[in-house]
From TrEMBL:
Protein name: Bifunctional NAD(P)H-hydrate repair enzyme
Positions contributing to (6S)-NADPHX binding: 60-64, 129-135, 140, 158, 258, 313, 366, 433
Residues where AMP binds: 403-407, 432
EC number: 4.2.1.136, 5.1.99.6
Record PROSITE patterns: YJEF_C_1, YJEF_C_2, YJEF_C_3, YJEF_N
Gene: nnrE
Organism: Denitromonas halophila
Length: 500
């Protein structure tokens, strides 16, 4: 059975669910959250006797921490609570949790204690959750830095303190958790930008709520379950025509490597035939390492295949622009990458033509390309990647893959997803070209557009994860090493499919 995809809600959505569920929730949500955190903590401390430290903040995240502390106290475990706020100012639920902690005999320290000689069994961050409003500084920042330096497992409650739950930005300083227990549902900031670096292992505790019954999920994580039905075993009676023609266009003088990488990836991902159209008049006529590729002058390749991927190494001169205009005017499904995106960013006529197309368009920008397309700075894109992906999808009426840690997929109708596969080995030249080739191959094999996008993005990262597990990376992982790993994964998934 493939693991189902989990829903993702922004903070506004979580608040809506909480508000709707809270009045009738018995036991109250904070009790459930604190208990769920304690259960998870027990798992983390299985081989670690000794005391645990819980740092509680001034809001309801701190309230969860007090509930958790009470469970450990009542179970006879040594637990130390640090809280530097004013208990009189705690919000209602958190105040009740503090009172219950106090009534159970618990005490709070107003500053972080030094660690016992044997070290803490676990350090718990219950400082700030989804209510973080501004950068952390002063005492709380000092606490977070000190906690981050402790050599023990570190668990965050709901969201690592200092991380923006919507965007994954670090506001001032952020707790670096080895484990995060998040409530009700995933939040985008846990999955993209700096989120994964601060969450460690991420567990969702739904608190017995069916979030979707209160508010349909706006976003989902990318999982093979969403495209797994494309992995049907091939018929014995098959021929290459069944698996389509992938077409990749690019390769201006001096830049033929990029489309060749895409082409090699498309072959390994199962396209029946792969055409690579090259702009360079002196381009090779055969790829001696991969002679299956059919190299063509760029113009000639435009008339082939079901879908065209254009952009790798395309350059930005007049010939490149003319080719791109012709591709956009075609009836093919289009994937625009690299220089195709850079040309699009400065050509309003092209942008207009793109939005008038009937066949689907996929844009695959990295943050700098996204910035050019939205006439913004890369930092502004990264400050809210979800927002940027949605804006691009709307502006160009296209499917968008905003690459980077936690690649975002935005559909033109406003739905979005976040991919969780991949690793820093992918921070290398040519990785984007491979993604484009994968997309071209899945489209050639007539995967529906959304399945092709999710499949390509997930496979791209999963192939890199496979290499990482074998010690091939993160340092020195090469884009040209990815396609073989993609092939292995796709064949494994087809084999699994046969057992359903
Ligand atoms: N509601 C529920 O039913 C449930 C909620 N649950 C839990 O509650 C969490 C959300 O709680 P929350 O809304 O109270 O926000 P929280 O993250 O504790 O922070 C707010 C406090 O921090 C302060 N503050 C903010 N930024 C700051 C900064 N930079 N530096 C310093 N202070 C700063 C802010 O002060 P203010 O901005 O008002 O001055 C306020 O005092 C959620 O993540 C989950 O863990 C669960 O129990 C499930 C049920
Ligand atoms: K926290």
């Amino acid at each position: 059975m493939l693991q189902p995809s989990q829903p993702i809600y922004t903070v506004a959505g979580i608040r809506t669910i909480e508000t709707a569920a809270m009045p009738s929730a018995k036991p109250p949500l904070m009790e459930r959250a604190g208990r769920a955190s304690a259960e998870e903590a027990v798992r983390l401390m299985i081989d670690r006797p000794g005391a645990l430290l819980i740092a509680c903040g001034p809001g309801n995240n701190g309230g969860d921490g007090f509930v958790m502390a009470r469970h450990f106290l009542q179970a006879g475990r040594k637990v130390v609570v640090a809280f530097s706020g004013d208990t009189a100012k705690l919000p209602g639920d958190a105040k009740k949790s503090w009172e219950a902690w106090r009534d159970a005999g618990g005490e709070t320290l107003s500053d972080l204690p030094s660690a016992p000689p044997e070290g803490w069994a676990l350090v718990v961050d219950a400082l700030f959750g989804i209510g973080l409003q501004r950068p952390i500084n002063g005492r709380y920042a000092d606490w977070i830095r000190a906690l981050n330096a402790l050599p023990c497992p570190r668990m965050s409650i709901d969201v690592p303190s200092g991380l923006c739950a919507d965007t994954g930005r670090v506001l001032g300083v952020a707790f670096k958790a080895t484990h995060t227990v998040t409530f009700i549902a995933l939040k985008p900031g846990l999955l993209t930008l700096d989120g994964p670096d601060h969450c460690g292992e991420l567990v969702v505790k739904r608190l017995d709520l069916d979030a979707n019954s209160y508010l349909p999920a706006p976003g989902w994580e990318v999982r093979p379950a969403l495209f797994g039905d494309q992995f049907a075993p091939r018929r014995l009676n098959s021929h290459k025509g069944l698996f389509g023609d992938a077409v990749i266009i690019g390769g201006a003088p001096g830049m033929c490597g990029a489309p060749l990488l895409s082409g090699r990836a498309a072959l390994r991902a199962g396209a029946g035939r792969v055409f690579v159209g090259l702009l360079d008049p002196r381009a090779p006529v055969v790829d001696l390492i991969q002679p299956e590729l059919m190299l063509r002058p760029a113009e000639d390749a435009l008339s082939e295949g079901q879908a065209i991927a254009i952009g790798p190494g395309l350059g930005r001169d007049e010939a490149a622009s003319a080719l791109l205009h012709r591709a956009v005017a075609s009836k093919h499904t289009l994937v625009l990458d690299a220089d195709a995106l850079n040309l699009l960013a400065t050509d309003d006529t092209l942008a207009g033509a793109l939005t008038r197309r009937h066949a689907p368009v996929v844009l695959t920008p990295h943050p700098a390309e996204a910035a050019r397309l939205l006439k913004a700075l890369p930092d502004e894109i990264q400050a809210n990647r979800l927002d940027a992906a949605l804006k691009l999808a709307q502006r160009f009426d296209a499917h968008v893959i905003l690459k980077g840690n936690g690649s975002l997929i935005a559909h033109p109708d406003g739905r979005w997803l976040i991919n969780r596969s991949g690793n820093p080995g992918m921070s290398a030249a040519g990785m984007g070209d491979v993604l484009t080739g994968l997309l071209a191959a899945l489209l050639a094999q007539r995967w529906p557009i959304e399945a092709a996008i999710l499949g390509a993005v997930h496979l791209h990262g999963a192939a890199a994860d496979l290499l990482l597990a074998k010690g091939i990376g993160p340092i020195g992982m090469g884009a040209s090493e990815l396609p073989d790993a993609v092939r292995m994964l796709m064949n494994q998934w087809v084999a699994q499919h046969q057992h359903y």
